[in-house]
Amino acid sequence: MLDRIVEFLKALGIAAPDRRGWVTVVLTFLIALLAAWLFNPGVRRFSLRVGWADKPNARRLNKEPLPNAGGLAIFAAVIVALVIATLIDPIGLPPRLVEVLAILLGGAILILTGFVDDQYGLPPILRLLVQIMAALLLVSVDIRIDVEFGGSFSSAIGIILTVIWIVAITNVVNFLDGVDGLAGGVSFITAMSLLAVSAQDQAKAAATLLLAALGGAALGFLRHNFPPSRIIMGDSGAYFFGFVLAASSILGDLKITTLFGLFPTVFFMLLPFLIPIGDTIRVILRRLLQRRNPLSSPGRDHLHHRLLERGLSQTRTTLILWGLTLVTNVVAMIVQKMSATVTATTAIAIIIFLTLVVLLRRRAHRKELRRDTALTATGDS
After folding, report:
1. Residue 25 and residue 213 in contact, taking contact as beta carbons nearer than 8 Å
2. Residue 255 confidence (pLDDT)
3. What is the C-alpha to C-alpha distance for residues 194 and 189, in angstroms, rounded to an integer?
4. DSSP string, 168-193
């Protein structure tokens, strides 16, 4: 049995399949999934009690106060999974421990920033400055895009590209958080696709472990966030997902040797995020043409809002955008020359996991409706 598993892992191109590192990755994913699944109900109840919730308004889709502190549960789930994984078998972590801790510290800073913004509101310029600071924290521990052109300016060019990449993806994921299940699902799909790629290279074991924890936490959160959601991640969770995804994608040796080499590399990096990035660029340009601040002028002009205006439900809108995201991630894997076996297995696994969590959420919702109906009938009698 073990020999068959090893052979299958070899077919997937997994680095060092005969060692137990892959077991640690799987356990990290499962622990994060379970932790997020279990933590969110408690966070939801506490949030409602203390008022950490989005109130209904003209821009939001919820009709009653909706807890917005899901990001705290997501962060806790990732930390728990990584701590337990480190105790079991710290594959790839010791050489990259400083970098991983820097990613988690930067993520914690953005979690706090997003949480304060959710509850009290922060100026857009302050949020942007904090994001830049978190990106520079990564640069300080050598998580960066290295360029080998530009002569004496090569280091500065690499730092600028790194900051732009980190800040852009952090905000792109945040802009997605307007429909139940959308940001969490897109984050899960992207994390699993990046994991499939990083697992091919033993030098990127730390990134693989981070992505496993992030993917598991996203899936566990979706159990409570798929329409109709019981809790949302808020800016805190969206910032964290975007920041860790962006950082994990460049954790390792990402070097650009020539100016010409910049374009295919950037193209490969952007492909998994193609749909949300395209939507974000469109919205920013539209708001600028309307002479509105794109960061401080929230509205209903994102792609998911346009689909809702066409009469689609939140569920259908989320599923359509999940599907488009999966397609772009598959294309990205093909462009990066992943084998057909790796690409197909990753896509099928993503579909199976998302299908299971949707079915479980639907079943739980039916139970909630029956319970509410029974309580109403009891009250009327």
Report:
1. no
2. 41
3. 9
4. HHHHHHHHHTTSTTHHHHHHHHHHHH
Residues for the chain: how many in total? 381
> For residue 89, what pLDDT is reported?
75
Domain boundaries along the sequence of the chain = 2-366
Average pLDDT per block of 10 residues along the chain, 381 residues long: 61 60 87 96 94 72 79 97 85 78 96 94 93 96 81 85 92 83 92 88 84 96 92 94 91 48 49 66 68 59 62 84 89 84 93 96 86 64 53
Cα(271)–Cα(242) distance, rounded to whole angstroms?
A: 15
Contact 144, 250 (CB under 8 A): yes
* The two structure tokens encoding residue 187: 């984050």
Three-state DSSP at 66 gives: strand
* Contact (CB, 8 A) for 31 and 84: yes
- Tokens describing residue 15: 């680095």
Closest of 309, 345, 347, 49 to residue 189, by C-alpha? 347
Peptide bond into 124 cis (omega under 30): no
